[in-house]
Amino acid sequence: MELERYIKDILGNHFTLADVPKEALALLPLYIKEEYHISQGEFWGYPVILMALKQDLDFHTQRTEKHLQTIADIFQRKVVLVMEEMQSYTRRRLIEKKINFIVPGKQLFLPELLIDLRERFSRNYGNKTDTLIPSAQQLFLYYMLHRHSKIQLTDLTLKEIAKKFNYTPTAISMAAENLKKFDLCDIKGSKEKNIVFKEDRPALWHMAQKHLVTPVLKEVFIDKIPDKRVLASNVSALPEYSDMNPGAQQYYAIEKKHYYHLRAAGALVNENPDEGQICLEVWKYDPYVLTYGITEDSNVDPLSLFLSLKDNEDERIEMALDQIIEKFIW
């Protein structure tokens, strides 16, 4: 597809494109579906809706601006207008109004998105050069947790790891290079490459501490568990790994892509940023991958749990986290 190829030529593999689920498209007014092709994408993991004007229709800035807002309100995402051709005066109007647009092969203008990305990276990653990217952290934690597995992560090629973790081979290569950058592993082999961790697990954990970050991207509140693809997290998960009792607030973790899919489909009951029966943690990586053979109670893994709570100053939680490290690291 020309649009995807054009964006990837500029941004590399930091962009993905996918169809919008049918149940989500059903939420749109008929006139929107008649005038635009709607798809969804991610820039650096940040979800957007792409609204492509059908070629045989006239363009009117004011009307299109209202349509953009309608779609943004329904999906609760930034929207990017896509046009095959654009007159110079139309381009000027869109730039003046700071409306996101792409003309494949010619121009990419994303003022809203770039501002949000800057704020998001600043908030979640601090100095990005000092922290592991999410995929690299996920690989590292898997290695730390699954010390007793018959097949170790180091026994697998990068291609096999990509399949196991549901990443592209390119993404896993980037993750491996990120681990190597911080001297946590070496990459061996020529045609088929493997990750080789340099130290024993306690030493690795100590070395990695300044590079590990919380897996939680954000928190929202809802009143009903959306489906089975969530795991108990935060203080709701601590009882399995420590002596701490669960708190009154229920916490669950969900992978970010699945969260945005459910959100677009309207499957999150009474979602809001302040209160609800359930606090839903949106994670940067899939929490399920790390839990096989680790949890017996559908909880997130203990090391990601540790990272999500390590800055909490509650003494009970600090004691619980000490128990996790004693059990799973030393």
What do these coordinates show?
Strands 1-2-3-4-5-6 form a six-stranded mixed beta sheet. Strands 9-12-11-10 form a four-stranded mixed beta sheet. By secondary structure, the chain is of the alpha/beta class. It contains 14 helices and twelve strands. Helix 7 (134-145) crosses helix 9 (169-181) and helix 13 (302-309) packs antiparallel against helix 14 (315-328). Strand 3 (46-53), helix 4 and strand 4 form a beta-alpha-beta unit. It has three domains: 2-119; 127-211, Winged helix-like DNA-binding domain superfamily/Winged helix DNA-binding domain (Arc Repressor Mutant, subunit A), CATH 1.10.10.10; 216-328, no CATH class. It has helices at residues 2-11, 22-25, 30-35, 61-75, 88-96, 111-125, 134-145, 158-165, 169-181, 201-208, 238-241, 256-264, 302-309, 315-328; strands at 15-19, 36-43, 46-53, 78-82, 101-103, 107-109, 185-188, 194-197, 216-222, 231-232, 250-255, 278-283. The protein is globular. It is 41% helix and 18% strand.
Blueprint of the fold:
Layout: H1 2-11, E1 15-19, H2 22-25, H3 30-35, E2 36-43, E3 46-53, H4 61-75, E4 78-82, H5 88-96, E5 101-103, E6 107-109, H6 111-125, H7 134-145, H8 158-165, H9 169-181, E7 185-188, E8 194-197, H10 201-208, E9 216-222, E10 231-232, H11 238-241, E11 250-255, H12 256-264, E12 278-283, H13 302-309, H14 315-328
Parallel strand pairs: 3-4, 4-5, 11-12
Antiparallel strand pairs: 1-2, 2-3, 5-6, 7-8, 9-12, 10-11
Helix pairs in contact: 7-9, 8-9, 13-14
Protein name: MarR family transcriptional regulator
Organism: Chitinophaga eiseniae
